[in-house]
Amino acid sequence: MAWRKSSYSGGDDNCLEVTVAGDVVALRDSKDTARPYAKVSRAAWRHFLFSVAGGAVR
């Protein structure tokens, strides 16, 4: 999987990393990449992002 960090994150590895595989979005802590990661549906991730941004879910 190709993990990526937000462009807003600093260089201290204190952030969330994400990757997309089909209909699943996986999330992990960049400080401890050996730990298990969380998985959510793409729809759930999209809903989360729109909610955080203060927009309506489309």
Distance separating the two termini: 27 Å
Question: What do the pLDDT scores average to?
Answer: 85
- Derived from helix and strand composition plus strand pairing, the structural class reads alpha+beta
Total beta strand runs: 4
The best one-word shape is globular
Helix and strand run: EEEEH
Total count of domains: 1
Strand count, sense and closure of the main sheet?
4 strands, antiparallel
- Biggest sheet strand order reads 1-2-3-4
Count every helix, treating DSSP H or I runs of 4 or more residues as helices. Answer: 1
Alpha-carbon Rg, integer:
12 Å
Pfam family, one: DUF397
Domain DUF397: 2-51
InterPro entries: DUF397 (IPR007278)
Protein name: DUF397 domain-containing protein
Keywords:
about 60 residues; four-stranded antiparallel sheet; 4 strands; about 20% helix
